[in-house]
Structure formats: structure tokens, C-alpha cells
Amino acid sequence: MSQRPNILICGTPGTGKTTTAEAVAQQAGYNHINVGQWVAEKGLHSGWDEEFNCWTIDEDKVCDAMEDVMAEGGNIVDHHGCEFFPERWDGLLALSRAGGVAQS
What we know:
Shape: globular
Mean pLDDT: 88
Oligomer: single chain
Low-confidence stretches: none
Strand order of the largest sheet: 2-5-1-6-7
Order of helices and strands: EHEHEEHEEE
Number of strands: 7
Structural class: alpha/beta
Distance between the termini: 19 Å
Largest sheet: 5 strands, mixed
């Protein structure tokens, strides 16, 4: 495992994941990874979903793109879910919900 753990912040939209991740990353000197932003910027999707007005995430592409960065440690990742991230990226998991952040 890396010297600095990775932190995954997951939760439903509008609960403050990105705001929390950015603030903690800045204070701790960690790298902030906004998965939704990476999906759009790096083409880590399988196309646009008209019904939900968003990219359809390609989980394999996301994991491949993040592998080397996550192996280094010191990342704060924010995304709606965390179920597809490999266990080897473990560290602290924080679940963001209305009313605050619950740690796991």
C-alpha cells in the first residue's frame, strides 16, 4: 500500500462531495480527482445518455485511467458511487449525504 492512503468520497448529487474533496485536498496536499470531470475530459465513457443528460461512464476505462495515479496514493476521489473501484485502492471511504459526511 502507498505511504499516503487514497480517500474516496461518495454520495448522491448535491451533498457536497466536490466541495469537501477540494477543501480536504488543498489542506492535506492531496490530489483531487473528480471522476465525472475525468469522464468528460478524457473520454472515459461509452456515449451520451439523452434521458439522464450525462455521459454513460465506462468503468473499465475509468479504472485503467486512474490506476497509476491511485497506486501512488495521496488522492481524494469524488464520485456518486464507489462499488466499481478495485479493493487495492482502499483507504478511507467517506459517504456524503444531506446533512453531513459519514465516515466508513
